[in-house]
Design a protein that fits this description.
Blueprint lengths: L10 E10 L5 E11 L15 H8 L7 E6 L2 E2 L5 H11 L15 H6 L11 H13 L15 H13 L3
Length: 168
């Protein structure tokens, strides 16, 4: 079983570089050294094509650096097997995508419950309560039973944020 380090930094990058094999061997990110502690806020800015999405893919354990180290939640993602990275993403990382990836016919609450995986027949009172609380935190406590397709764009964005926040 993989143990996520809840005490150390959320992310620690050392000499992290991402390159793509191309005729000119394009370096997209790095080398980069970065420490992100829990509770930190980090803004990633830059022009289109500067490597922001690639960098976020490394931080989200969706991609591995070509060189250097990326330690996320205490797991060395540069060397960890795919199943360990999947567990890391499942238990430690919340994603908010540019496209919200909501199920239009499912309620806001059901969409937030998706953070725990495909819907079980009986999701459990603790998970439902956590999802309702996450929706309340983003100002949608009154819209838990509204179908996602009936929500405004801003409300859909907040459902996606609640889904990312629900597992803390």
């Amino acid at each position: 079983m993989t143990v996520i380090d809840a005490a150390g930094p959320a992310a620690l990058l050392a000499g992290c570089t991402k390159e793509y094999e191309a005729p000119d061997r394009q370096v997209v990110v790095g080398p980069l050294d970065l420490r992100v502690d829990r509770g930190d806020y980090v803004a990633i800015t830059g022009p289109s094509g500067s490597g922001k999405t690639t960098f976020l893919s490394i931080l989200g354990a969706l991609d591995r650096p070509s060189r250097g180290r990326a330690t996320i939640g205490g797991i060395e993602s540069s060397e960890a097997p795919a199943r360990v990275l999947a567990r890391l993403r499942e238990s430690f990382i919340g994603f908010v995508f540019q496209q919200y990836h909501l199920f239009a016919r499912r309620t806001a609450l059901e969409n937030v419950l998706m953070a725990f995986g495909p819907p079980p027949l009986h999701p459990g009172e603790e998970r439902v309560a956590a999802c309702v609380l996450a929706l309340e935190r983003v100002g949608l406590g009154h819209r838990t039973q509204a179908p996602a397709g009936a929500l405004s764009g801003g409300e859909q964005q907040r459902v996606a944020i609640a889904r990312a926040l629900v597992k803390r």
